[in-house]
Design goal:
This protein is of the alpha+beta class. It is 23% helix and 35% strand.
Length: 147
């Protein structure tokens, strides 16, 4: 897009300004993006097997060194080539009151995600391991982000 702006801009000073701005951005952004691609997925901070033992809830601390912490929740089963992993959602630490505190299984197919001061989020897991958000409407929706 900046290249199009440079080609179709008639003023030389504006072309120079856009080109220098783009070069400075790429100079500083490229190493940051490479580091994020290499070390993007954070370590597992909590691993909780379900009472039935069929699934394990993993909480990963993503982007630990950046401005806002983020915790990503996954359901995993098995190991090696037969391993399965299901994305549950993310809990953002942008608002400290809604940041992740703990998660716990309440039954063989249901677990709760607790934030610091926000209401709990209840997630049900079906027999295929797909997570379904049961409770978490209104202001709690921002706590568990799903694509």
């Amino acid at each position: 897009m900046a290249g199009v702006a440079i080609v179709y801009t008639r003023e030389v000073w504006l072309r120079l300004l856009i080109g220098v701005g783009l070069a400075v951005f790429l100079y500083y952004a490229t190493p940051f993006l490479l580091v994020m691609m290499l070390f993007g997925e954070g370590p597992v901070t909590a691993r909780m097997p379900s009472p039935s033992g069929s699934w394990t809830l993993e909480v990963r601390d993503d982007y630990g060194g950046l401005i806002d912490p983020q915790w990503t929740l996954y359901l995993t089963s098995g190991s090696g080539l037969l391993a399965r992993e299901r994305f549950v959602g993310c809990v953002s630490g942008d608002d400290p009151a809604r940041s992740y505190r703990e998660a716990e299984w309440t039954s063989a197919t249901t677990f709760e995600v607790h934030s610091v001061h926000a209401p709990k989020i209840v997630v049900r897991v079906d027999e295929d391991g797909h997570p379904h958000l049961m409770r978490g409407t209104g202001p709690v929706e921002a706590s568990l982000i799903r694509p």
